[in-house]
């Protein structure tokens, strides 16, 4: 287990309030990896919390900065991307990234991708609907990385996430999931305990000030044979 750290990316971002015809109301600016990421939020209902930037997604952004991650030539998919901030950073760090969420969130992700990803990099981005447990078979199983920030928080979603991971993962896929434990400590802890039955895991980082744990997981060998 790694040492506990303070998450500085999670400092209150600079906020700009605006209103446009399409109802995007807020823009937040996050400095990370030498980029100033501009994230617009669309307050809409029934989106399972995708219209704010969650600390776990930001924790993963900070971890990628600290680890000087280079995603060049790596194929990445993010589940439950929300605003898309983590995927956007991963594209800027060289990755070939598929950004996914429920269909209602895709317009918000498209707007944020347009604002942050230069046209020369757009060929490395796909934005697609992936509802856990339902759509995964439309995606390949050859990803180098699977990312998820604050998506493990709901008892009924866990089997759907597990089913999705089991389809998307191969024996060399690395999963980075982060969770704000205080959302529901017992539930999240027991959900990870279930995931760890299927995936070898390390707690690679913990941001104490925001109670965010970062896990690195790979498919257990017994899951990949036969
Ligand atoms: C708590 S938010 C986290 C958003 C983002 N990862 C972040 O760190 O800011 C959870 C995300 O999971 C998505 N989500 C919830 N249930 C889902 C499902 N069944 N299939 C796909 N995405 C789902 C939500 O739309 C939302 O964007």
UniProtKB/TrEMBL annotation:
It comes from the Eukaryota. The keyword S-adenosyl-L-methionine applies. Pfam families: Methyltransf_16. Keywords: Methyltransferase, S-adenosyl-L-methionine, Transferase. One of its GO terms (biological process) is methylation. Signal peptide: none annotated. One of its GO terms (cellular component) is cytosol. GO terms for molecular function: methyltransferase activity. This is Methyltransferase small domain-containing protein.
């Amino acid at each position: 287990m790694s040492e506990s750290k303070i998450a500085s990316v999670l400092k209150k971002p600079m906020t700009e309030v605006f209103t446009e015809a399409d109802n995007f109301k807020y823009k937040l600016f996050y400095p990370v990896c030498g980029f100033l990421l501009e994230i617009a939020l669309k307050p809409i209902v029934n989106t399972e919390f995708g219209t704010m930037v969650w600390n776990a997604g930001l924790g993963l952004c900070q971890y990628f900065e600290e680890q000087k991650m280079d995603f060049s030539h790596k194929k990445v998919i993010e589940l439950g991307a929300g605003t898309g901030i983590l995927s956007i950073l991963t594209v800027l760090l060289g990755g070939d990234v598929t950004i996914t969420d429920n269909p209602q969130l895709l317009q918000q992700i498209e707007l944020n991708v347009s604002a942050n990803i230069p046209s020369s990099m757009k060929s490395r981005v796909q934005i697609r609907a992936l509802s856990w447990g339902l759509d995964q078979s439309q995606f390949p199983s050859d990803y180098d990385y699977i990312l998820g920030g604050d998506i493990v928080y709901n008892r009924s979603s866990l089997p759907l996430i597990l089913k999705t991971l089991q389809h998307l993962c191969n024996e060399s896929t690395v999963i980075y999931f982060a969770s704000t434990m205080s959302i529901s400590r017992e539930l999240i802890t027991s959900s990870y305990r279930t995931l760890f039955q299927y995936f070898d895991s390390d707690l690679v980082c913990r941001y104490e000030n925001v109670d965010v744990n970062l896990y690195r997981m790979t498919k257990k060998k017994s899951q990949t044979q036969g």
